[in-house]
Amino acid sequence: MGFFRPGRARSVFLAMLATLLVCTVYLYWTPITASSTVSVVPSTAFEVPLVERQKDFWKVFHPLIAKYNPRCPPPAKLGSAPAVHFNPNEGIPRPDLSKVTEECLWLLEGAHDQFVKEITKPDQDLKPVHRHTPGTRGIVTTAGSTYMPVVINSLRMLRRSGSTLPVEVFMKDTEEWEKRICNEVLPEMNARCLVIGDVVGKEPIAHFQLKIFAMLFSSFEEVIWMDADCFPLHKPEDLLDSEPYTSTGMVTWPDFWFSSASPLYYQVSKQPVPPMTSRQSTESGVILVSKKTHFTPLLLAAYYNFHGPSVYFRLLTQGGPGEGDKETFTAAAAALKAPYYTVSEKVQPIGHFDSIKNSGSAMVQSDPREDYALVSQGKWRVNDPSVAPPPAIFFIHANFPKFNPGDNLFGMGWETTPTIDDNGTDVRAWSGPLEVIDRFGFDAEKAFWEEIKWVTCKYETVFESWKNKAGLCQKVEDYWNNVFAEPHDDDPKFTREG
């Protein structure tokens, strides 16, 4: 009969302990590569995945917006609203170019009224805490196809500003998913791809409607919306800690034009018709909004967008410039009497100007903090520009054309030719107006092209929309060498600090 030695017991115990340790590490350790920039550990052990939260929200919200479909024909179009530059000192008659039958008006009013009652009920099932992560903030945008190179350029400028905010890039459906971009390129920039189609299924949400649903489906509580072709010159997160955002929870920027909303819209939403001089129409390339304070207005904006192609885009714009989602955000906030701040400083076009034509290719929006400071002192530059110097430029919306080297950026065959003059010579895209360019505070165009060059040469063979195009890197490098590599006498000089 054998006997048990103490030394052997110790060896067996140590072997068992080592085995248990190895198994524990194997089961619970998740490797993180050196190149990882996004945590793989959920913020809480039992956090419901975002896409599941989005689907839960959609299961409740979709029947609601479908239930209150106005169920009447689109408004009759009596013409399109003209593009008239806003002038607060000299109003124009409000366009009245849309007609509906008495029965349709009754249906529109009833559906709108019932939907508003549903989303404002204290016990409604659309509580935002279940849809986003409280206390979070980030950038939200949409991209896909030819917009993918554009959004990468913009994100490079975002990071160049010093911003560390996470980014969620929504795309319409899985056909717009680009494997290397979504799995490698964006995560390196603290950004990720999300697919709206994964949430809404076959519901035909597209084009202008994507913006509001990307904002609602985002995981962030505080959202900075930026169009794919829009980028900041300074850290945008600083705006979320400053007035006017901190007191209102929503900030928007102006378009060039007078409002062209139909009087019918105000009747449907039970609002008094505002004076035409009260504010400009909205340019929705950038929006700051808190779901904590403005979740219900976002739901109403989603209602306007969901029924936009059939009714509300027409009622809110009447065929005027940029018809689509642009007016739905401020309209929804006003209808629910939610506070918001619209920057009063006028949007400005930038481009280059030669003997034949003006080649405008972007618009710039001002720092809302500086605008708010002036307005708080009763200094309304929109009424009288002489009352104070203008605010600094904060955002550039490079929208016409999109600055995609694989698209219509170079050459003469386009409505606007941002990169060449009337002689076919390479020139800066943004050389004027000089008083606007000076408000950049630094050579933002050179910085932008530096990022375009980096993106083009690094990912020339990566973007799906560039697969059948060759020589893009060389084309951008040639342009860079002609315009930016060496200083020129007519390069912009900056008197403001950036």
UniProtKB/TrEMBL annotation:
How does it sit in the bilayer? Single-pass type II membrane protein
Q: Which InterPro entries match?
A: Alpha_mannosyltransferase, Nucleotide-diphossugar_trans
Organism superkingdom: Eukaryota
The processes (GO biological process) annotated in the record are: mannan biosynthetic process
* Coarse class of the protein's main subcellular location: Golgi
Q: Which GO terms describe its cellular component?
A: Golgi membrane
Cell location: Golgi apparatus membrane
Tell me the pathway. Protein modification; protein glycosylation
Q: Which UniProt keywords apply?
A: Golgi apparatus, Membrane, Signal-anchor, Transferase, Transmembrane, Transmembrane helix
One GO MF term attached to the UniProt entry:
alpha-1,2-mannosyltransferase activity
User: Which family does the record assign?
Assistant: Belongs to the MNN1/MNT family.
Question: What is the protein's given name?
Answer: Alpha-1,2-mannosyltransferase
Q: Which organism is it from?
A: Penicillium atrosanguineum
